[in-house]
Amino acid sequence: MSAPVHATPKTPPKTFHVKSFGCQMNVYDGERMAELMAADGLTATDDAAAADLVVLNTCHIREKATEKVYSDIGRLRKHAREQDRAAPMIAVAGCVAQAEGEEIVRRAKVDVVVGPQAYHHLPKLVADAAAGTPALDTDMPLASKFGALPARRRVGASAFLTVQEGCDKFCTYCVVPYTRGAEVSRPFDAIVEEARALVDAGAREITLLGQNVNAWNDADDRGLHGLIRALDRIPGLARIRYTTSHPNDMTQGLIDAHRDVAALMPFLHLPVQAGSDRVLRAMNRSHTRDSYLRLIDRIRAVCPDIALSGDFIVGFPGETEAEFAETIALVDAVGYAQAFSFKYSPRPGTPAATMEAQVGDAAMDDRLQRLQAALNRDQAAFNAATVGRRCTILIERRGKLPGQWLGKSPWLQSVHVIGDHAIGDMVEVDLTQAGPNSLTGRVTAPAAATAC
Ligand code: SAH
Ligand code: SF4
Ligand code: F3S
Questions:
Q1: 295: CA distance to ligand 1 center in Å?
Q2: Which of the ligands is closest to the CA of residue 311?
């Protein structure tokens, strides 16, 4: 469906800026939109305030994410008024566009609204808007958008590659199944081809992305581990990562790949959300506290060195203080290397939004603070425990100091080094110092990758 929403003829844009919010899949989509607009003859600019067209690639996961979009639109228009220039064309893409298409049009009068499965139509929608027929396209067509996107261009040392989209899990708090649609795996050959193109464009590390990336599969039942083993054969690809995984889709094949595939980094983001079985059931997580902990044991048995990461929600409706204490106890039991934690945010249309006993904001603030204190403690402990270890880092960018470079350890820690390096170098370092969020390394000599 492509429906006219309001009419404001504009000069066709010559420059554009894409701003992505939310998860890594949105970052990937933003990159693909930028490639699409560039292939259509527009020039990218880093300065949103100077662009003729601003694409806001939005996230709907929590309330503040949506509000941020509206304030961004207001700011862009105010800035244009202050500069005495025409307001930029605004295209709202991403998950807010999918969830609230009509509402955005009503509230913010933007030129284009395009959903995550329809953004390959962006050039046409922008052209329509410029010609005076602004458009809303939130279709989820059967034919995948990926085939309609241009080839990958230059990328950094570490690149994202979406291999799976959507979610069939329907956790009761979550909008993703509604904004991204059903679980779909991209075809094996298309992924391998895109991975090769990314390596040719400069990537040394690829992070495979999916809302449930470990649910990736194909007709030959190769599973994500089969895909990883195939990618491991691409010359020049030094590192492979994947995110986000669901505990129920963590197969033994994938766990074993952490032992067998040297390029597969010893890091796993495996959200648990809460530590209480009653809360997990109410969330419709379909795993228990115990099944999660047993899974962690199986993973650590194969890869003792693995760094674990997670997501947590505090204050899910009905969560008691005792149930929250079970989350803290689970954190203590696992010892995460890093984690994300959020206050529960009621999302329109999700079952949890209308559940009884919504938890008050003061209690949520208090729980979040206590949870984050425990997670920060464990992150600092994990970082401190790696001091004295030798590992390879992938240089991703320059640091702030002269001669300083920033790279990533196998365990996804940021490591600062001083030396004569370049982006994409694999550098062997001794980790000498740890802070809460990054480490310092001393360069030894060029070397091969480290795994578990
Ligand atoms: N598919 C992944 C992640 C999806 S969204 C998974 O299942 O783990 C990323 C994170 O946002 C979730 O893991 C969850 O912790 C958080 N989240 C999702 N909906 C939320 C909500 N309504 N309120 C607060 N946090 C939420
Ligand atoms: Fe959302 Fe749950 Fe699906 Fe993750 S598994 S995307 S939290 S519904
Ligand atoms: Fe946000 Fe959509 Fe990603 S809601 S977290 S941008 S899938």
A1: 20
A2: 1
Q: Which residue CA neighbors atom 4 of ligand 2 most closely?
A: 211
User: How does pLDDT run across 403-423, given as a tens digit for each residue?
Assistant: 999 999 999 999 999 999 999
CATH 3.40.50.12160 is right for the domain spanning 15-137: yes
C-alpha span between 297 and 29 (Å, rounded): 35
Over residues 228-256, the pLDDT tens digits come to: 999 999 999 999 999 999 999 999 999 99
Nearest to 136 by CA among 14, 4, 293, 307: 4
CA 332 to ligand 3 centroid distance, Å = 28
Exposed / middle / buried, residue 433 (Cβ in 10 Å: 0-12, 13-18, 19+): middle
| Pocket lined around ligand 1, Cβ cut-off 6 Å | 61-62, 167, 173-174, 176, 211-212, 244, 246, 271, 273, 311, 313, 342, 344-345, 347
- Tell me the CA distances in angstroms from 219 to 185, 222, 223, 227, 443, one per residue in order: 10, 8, 9, 12, 45
Domain positions in the chain are 15-137, 390-446
**Phi, psi (5° rounding) for residue 136?**
-125, 125
The 8-class DSSP code of residue 176 comes to: H
Indicate the CATH number of 390-446 among 3.40.50.920, 2.40.50.140, 3.40.50.740, 2.40.420.20: 2.40.50.140
